[in-house]
Design a protein that fits this description.
About 40% of the residues lie in helices and about 15% in strands. It has about 375 residues and is an alpha/beta fold. The strands form 3 sheets. A 7-stranded mixed β-sheet has the order 2-8-7-6-5-3-4, sandwiched between helices. The protein has a 3-stranded antiparallel β-sheet with strand order 9-10-12. Helix 2 packs parallel to helix 7. The longest helix has about 35 residues.
Amino acid sequence: MEQEYYFDNGATTRTDPQVAAVITDMLVNCYGNPSSLHRKGLEAQLRMDTARRQLAALMGCEAKNLTFTSGATEANNLAIFGAVYARRHGGKKIITTAFEHSSVLAPIQQLEREGYQVVRISPDRQGNISAQSVIDAVDEDTVLVSCMMVNNELGSILPIEQIARGTRRKNPNTFLHCDAVQALGKLPFKASRLGIDAMAVSGHKIHGPKGIGALYLREGARILPRTFGGEQEKRLRPGTENAAYIVGFGEASRLMQQNGKRYMQQITQCNQRLRQLLDGKESIVFHAPENALPTILNFSVLGIRSEIMLHFLEQKGICVSSGSACAKGAKSHVLSALGLTGQEIDSALRVGFSHENTLEQVEILANAILEGQKVIKR
C-alpha cells in the first residue's frame, strides 16, 4: 500500500481507533433506543449521559446545556434561525464576520433575504478581527452577533470573550453565537465563562466520527426549534438519537481532555518546522497570522494553481487542501475577505495538522512542495 501523508485535518480527522471501537460496541451490543423503558434502552441512555458529561468537561460547561445534533452545520443553523425567530420583535440587525464558515454565512444570507440587515466585519490583511470593530457595529436594533472562535482556513483566533463583554454593555438583549468547531480541544476555553449564548461544535474535527455535533445553550437562552416530532434533546432536536456516534463523540472528547496538551505540542512543532522549511523560499507567501492556532497553516505557491499542486502532491500520497472542504473547490471567500490578489487566492494551500503528523512527514511535505514548484513551472 502506498505511504499516506495526511495534512487535511482542518477538513476532517482520522477517527481514533479507540473511538471506533466504542462506536462498534454501541452498534453491536448496546443497540437499544435510548427512549425505550426496558434495560437495553436504559443502557444506551446511560452511555449517552456519560458522553454528554465528557463533552461538557472538554467545553467547560454543564452537561444539561448541551444538545446533540447531526453536526456543527445543524447546530449553527439551529442557533441562528432559532435565536432570530425567537426574537422577531427584538431587532432587525445581524452582525457577523466576512470569513465565517458557510454553515453560518448561508443561514445569515437567508435571513438577509427575509429583510434583516446584515453587517459583515472584514478581517485585516493578516486575518485578524478586533473586538472593537464588532462592538462598534452593535446598536439597539442588533438581534444577533455571530463570530467564529477560530477561522477554518487561517487559524485566526477571534477575541470572543471581549466581543461578548462589549456587546452586552451596548445591548444586553443581543443573542451571541459562536462557531467553535476548529477550537474545540485545541484552544483552551470554558463556554460557560465566555459570556455567549450559544456555541456549535463537531465530532469529526477531534478524531471522532462524522455526522455528530452539539450545541451549547447558556442557561435561560431561548431559541425556537427547527424540527418537530419527538421529546428527545428537550424537543430542540427531536428524533431518535444517534447513540453510537454520541458515545463516540464523548470518547473523542475524553481523549482530547486527557491528551490535548501533548497533542498541541506535537502540532506546534510540525507547524513551526514547515514554516522554517518554506520561509524565504521564492514565490511562497504565508497568509496565516503569526498568532494563529497552529493546527492550520495557509500559504500560496505563487504561479501554480492550487488544484495543480494538489494533484502533484496527491501523486506522492500527500493530502492537503486549497480551503474549506464545504466549499467543494470554490474560490475562497476567506482569502477574498483578506483582500488578497487573485493570484494569491488561486494558488493557496491549507495545511491542517493533527498530533498524528510527524516532523519527518513535514520534511516530506515541504520537499514535495518545493519539487512541485520546479516540475510544474518547467
